[in-house]
Specification:
Elements (H helix, E strand, L loop, with lengths): L5 H8 L5 E4 L6 H14 L8 E5 L2 H14 L2 H6 L1 E4 H11 L11 E2 L2 H12 L10 H13 L4 H4 L6 H19 L2 E2 L3 H12 L1 H10 L2 E4 L7 H11 L5 E5 L6
Parallel strand pairs: 1-7, 2-3, 2-6, 4-5, 6-7
Helix pairs in contact: 1-2, 2-3, 5-10, 6-7, 6-9, 7-9, 10-11, 10-12
């Protein structure tokens, strides 16, 4: 780690509790993540498949894997769980099918398919409700990312448009379950809900993800934050790096 400065080396070696590293663009935040992953495996003796690192794009995850491929032997590098948040959520759903209310071979609807399904569900509403499908889908996405369940949405509605969206949310969720399908937001919402309500499942995943590292932490939304909380509590084995000046 001779190419790291003193603060970066301290961040890599600190494993006594949760750690938040704030630094500006180009300051080596991702290098801290990759070096810490290698440190946890080589120096701390953690199994590679017990170390998970998450970021926001497939490109960033691929680059992280490439960096770690230069720091660790091939077998260890390939055993690491490096992914996006949504890929991590998908991994949980595929492992916990029954508890998540899904069946083997469930499908993931893209945005166009989700919008088409919602438009069909709204077609029976009075007026031109189907024409509002895009706006309704945006509200449903906001509810899912805030952890609001379909049955709870109506209680948060402040106007007629929100009530329409809340009714559509319940029907849309029922339709997804009928078709054994999830949408993109469900890849975070469903695992978070599952881990929150099932203590044994939560404990098993906390043991499976022995240490979690999060890149670009300033970009996390509520659903991603809640998933992180479920995976690291109560051990607090977490390192997150970000730039608060770039917070969205």
């Amino acid at each position: 780690m001779t190419d790291l400065n003193a603060q970066q080396r301290d961040a890599v070696r600190y494993i006594d509790g949760p750690l938040l590293v704030l630094a500006g663009a180009g300051s080596g935040k991702t290098s801290v993540i990759t070096r810490k992953v290698a440190y946890l495996v080589r120096e701390c003796g953690l199994r590679p498949d017990r170390v998970a690192a998450v970021t926001f794009t497939n490109k960033a995850a691929r680059e992280m894997r490439e960096r770690l491929g230069r720091l660790l032997p091939r077998e260890q590098a390939e055993g690491l769980a490096i992914s996006t948040f949504h890929q991590l959520g998908l991994r949980i759903l595929r492992t916990e099918l029954g508890k998540a209310g899904l069946r083997r071979g469930f499908s993931i609807m893209d945005n166009l398919d989700s919008l088409a399904l919602l438009r069909d569900l709204l077609a029976g509403e009075q007026g031109r409700a189907a024409d509002q499908a895009a706006a309704v889908m945006q509200r449903i996405s906001q509810w899912k990312n805030a952890g609001v369940m379909p049955a709870e949405a109506a209680g948060t509605a402040a106007d007629a448009a929100a009530l329409l969206a809340a009714r559509a949310y319940e029907r849309y969720d029922e339709a997804l379950r009928t078709f054994n399908a999830v949408d993109f937001d469900d890849l975070l919402a469903l695992p978070t809900q599952l881990l929150a309500r099932c203590a044994d499942t939560r404990q098993r995943w906390q043991e499976r993800v022995h240490y979690l590292l999060v890149d670009e932490y300033q970009d996390t939304n509520e659903a991603q934050y809640l998933l992180v909380r479920q995976l690291v509590d109560p051990r607090g084995a977490l390192t997150a790096v970000g730039d608060d000046d770039q917070s969205i």
